[in-house]
Amino acid sequence: MDPQWLTWAKDLHAIAQTGLTYAKDPYDVERYESVRLVAAQMMAAGSRQESVDFFVKLLGTDVGYATPKVDVRAVIFREGRLLLVREKEDGRWTLPGGWADIGDSPSAAVTREVREESGYEVKTSKLLAVLDRNLHGHPPIPYHAYKLFFLCDLLGGTARAEKETDAVGFFASDEIPPLSLTRVTPAQIARFLEHFFHPEWPTQFD
């Protein structure tokens, strides 16, 4: 769950972004820009790591009606072991995936991410979960995001870490390495490992 100050800052940013999308009066535009500046100031004060200018530029990259971002993740088994990749950014492990790109369908996005981060070719077979990132113990980020987890069938390819990852492996339930919590949590991994034994389970959502 986000700290209250970040929830307020995100709400202000959403109001400002949507207002800037539809405002015609220059005075309204100025007011919404001021609201966005307040959101950036709150984020900078709360993070204590980045400047106000950093958050002004970050929040200014979004345009149009404010909506959650979409993070897609792949759940892939081989002989009961789960595929994980190690992120260069923090040296910890996660399900392959990332932000969905404009123009990609969710299934196309996740198969592309698997190929780029692990070297494997897969196809999606089931949507396992649609989760609000804020409700599942992830460290806070400036955006509201939904996480889509897809069960994928392994088609081929070989382990290959490139760009954002530096290691690839399959892990049993008692071998799970330290996780990149901004991307996936132990509770999520435990849930998806259980899916291997309960393929009849329905899609989880919140």
Task: Summarize the SSE layout with pairings.
Elements: H1 4-22, H2 26-47, H3 52-60, E1 69-78, E2 81-87, E3 93-94, E4 97-99, H4 106-118, E5 120-132, E6 145-157, E7 165-171, H5 186-197, E8 204-205
Structural commentary:
- The protein starts with a helix and ends with a strand.
- 36% of the residues lie in helices and 28% in strands.
- The radius of gyration is 19 Å and the shape is elongated.
- It is an alpha+beta fold.
- The model has no long low-confidence stretch (mean pLDDT 95).
- It is built from 5 helices and 8 strands.
- The protein has 2 domains: 4-60; 69-205, Nucleoside Triphosphate Pyrophosphohydrolase (Alpha-Beta Complex).
- Strands 1, 2, 3, 4, 5, 6, 7 and 8 form an 8-stranded mixed sheet that branches.
- Strand 1 (69-78) and strand 2 (81-87) form a beta hairpin.
- Helix 1 (4-22) packs antiparallel against helix 2 and helix 2 (26-47) crosses helix 3.
CATH architecture of the largest domain: Alpha-Beta Complex
CATH class of the largest domain: Alpha Beta
* Sheet of most strands: 8 strands, mixed
Shape label: elongated
Average pLDDT, rounded to a whole number, is 95
End-to-end separation: 14 Å
